[in-house]
Amino acid sequence: MSLQARIQHQFTDSLAVKQAALAVMAAPIEAAVRLMAAALRAGGKVMACGNGGSAADSQHFAAELLNRFEKERPPLAALALTTDTSTLTSIANDYAYDQVFAKQVAGLGRAGDVLLAISTSGNSPNVIAAIAAAHARGVRVVALTGKGGGAIASQLADDDVHLCVPADRTARIQEVHLVTIHCLCDGIDALILGETT
User: Fold this and answer.
1) In this structure, is residue 115 part of a structural domain?
2) How buried is 14 (Cβ within 10 angstroms: 0-12 exposed, 13-18 middle, 19+ buried)?
């Protein structure tokens, strides 16, 4: 296969996965937008966590809410639990890496907040621990996964929201995660600014 054919395949495969994701994810994304917007309107916050590319997605999401997405509006309370190296390394050193997000959720999370838990496989132990900590604090969870949802799928409560990309390839899952994050940001802004109901 030529290099150009490989490039074309990446694009066509990505498009196909996005089309499949749209068919099954539009309604749960709407539910996640409504959950997050309601929390923010009520004075709560949205926390986000994940590893590797999902850590970058957590930071991207929090920045779009705290600063702005595409329109001017007041800052929204959001933070990525992936950015404070002193906190992350002290928890990993003193306890375990599995606890790096859970301890932050336990300390910062309040009833009425929302946790965006990102894991392409659905099996990240520290994200799973964060979800358990969120439930213990009365924090609702939006899980952004792929590969069938992994262990996270069975850990979610009835009032949580599962955004599961119908794909197994990590690159494709991450691409849909990014467009999903942009959908969340756009929808939150539309509700907060009164542009939709």
Assistant:
1) yes
2) middle
What is d(CA 40, CA 58) in angstroms, rounded to the nearest whole number? 17
Could you tell me the residue range of the domain that residue 81 belongs to? 3-192
Residue 197 lies in a domain: no
Name the pTM for this structure: 0.97
pLDDT, tens digit, 9 for 90 and up, residues 14-35: 999 999 999 999 999 999 999 9
- 109-143 residue pLDDT tens: 999 999 999 999 999 999 999 999 999 999 999 99
At residue 76, what is the residue type? L
Report the alpha-carbon distance of residue 112 to residue 100 in Å, rounded.
Answer: 22
Q: Tell me how many domains the chain contains.
A: 1
CATH of the domain at 117: 3.40.50.10490
